[in-house]
Amino acid sequence: MNPNDIILSIVFCSQTAVGLLGNSFLVCLFLLMFLTGHRLRPIDIILAQLACFNFLLLLSRGIPQTMAVLGLKNFLDDIECTIFFYLHKVSRGLSLSFTGLLSGFQAITISPSSSKWAEIKARAPKYIVLASSFCCAIHLPLNITVFVKVKDPQGSRNSSELHDFGFCSGLEATKVNDAPFGVVVSLRDAVFLGLMVFASGYMILLLHRHHKRNQYLYMTSLSPTASPRTRATQSILLLVSTFVCFYSLNSIFIAYMYFKTPKLWLIKWAGFLSVCFPTFSPFVLISSDSQLLKYCYGLWGKKVPHL
Fold first, then answer.
1. How far apart are CA 109 and CA 106, in angstroms?
2. C-alpha 147: how far from its chain's center?
3. Cβ contacts of 45 within 8 Å, gap of 6 or more
């Protein structure tokens, strides 16, 4: 291995390990709080599922990509290769969907009770499970084409027809066969990204109005503190901004590789970017959402400090 591969392998290994640890911590935290009878916020249901799908994304892409960078080639057979790619595609799409769902739900939650959203606001918590099931129902069949487009590098197909991704290979994109699928996937991504942008803009507007309305309180207080709802909204805005940043960069790489034979360095960097959000998202939430810290203190039976 050359020095660049050694450095990249260390980065990939550290990134995957940190991400798996952070997401597993969140999943276990929500599960233990539920089993011990603690009251969870409705939005915690979305956060728990988002952490699960991010964990699955790291397992299906982070670990195989790390092994490939370490020089372990052709370690997956045809079936294993297909399963890993399918899990990666599904978990990536669900991570996108649940981040959009999270931003939309929080925008409804903080909307004024006197607004036109009042009726939806009252019913929103009841439809979280239904919305989650709908997202899963979209992504599971949508990525079924992976079972015919992915082969292991040792497969019998002509090597000129394949993109080598290190641990798996994908068939070359063809305009006739892949155009409808690409349109559907792009439309799905555009819908959820549009939801994030719209909901984030709406939340920023509400926070700005709230700040102006209560500006005199900030001027008279030496250590002003935001309300729990405001802090939760700010943490979600930070999470969505992190997602959009990494997702946009990764989408540029994927779009290029979809129609061009990618260079090896491009494949590695695309793999790195694809797991950046699931790696950092649990720590963004833990550091910015005071309610999660309160869950930790409550679980361990310690006195909750002033947050």
1. 5
2. 23
3. 128, 129, 132
255: Cβ–Cβ under 8 A, 6 or more apart, which residues? none
pLDDT in tens, 7-64: 777 888 888 899 999 999 999 999 988 888 878 888 899 999 999 999 999 988 877 7
Beta strands 162-164 and 150-151: pairing type?
A: unpaired
Contacts of 95 (CB under 8 A, 6+ apart): 50, 53, 54, 57, 243, 277, 278
d(CA 247, CA 253): 10
Nearest to 103 by CA among 171, 9, 162, 191: 191
With CA atoms as reference, report the closest residue to 102 among 241, 257, 213, 4: 241
Decide: helix, strand or coil at residue 163: strand
The enclosing H or E element of 58 equals none
Which residue, 192, 272, 278, 207, is CA-closest to 243?
Answer: 278
Dump pLDDT digits (tens) for 172-201.
444 435 556 666 777 777 888 888 889 888
CA distances from 291 to 34, 128, 235, 305 (A): 14, 19, 11, 12
Cα gap 291→226, rounded to integer Å: 13
The whole-model pTM stands at 0.82
For 61-75, give the secondary structure using H, E and C.
HHHHHHHHHCCCCCC
Q: Are strands 150-151 and 169-171 parallel, antiparallel or unpaired?
A: antiparallel
Query: Dihedral angle at the C-alpha atoms of 274, 275, 277, 280, nearest 10 degrees?
Result: -160
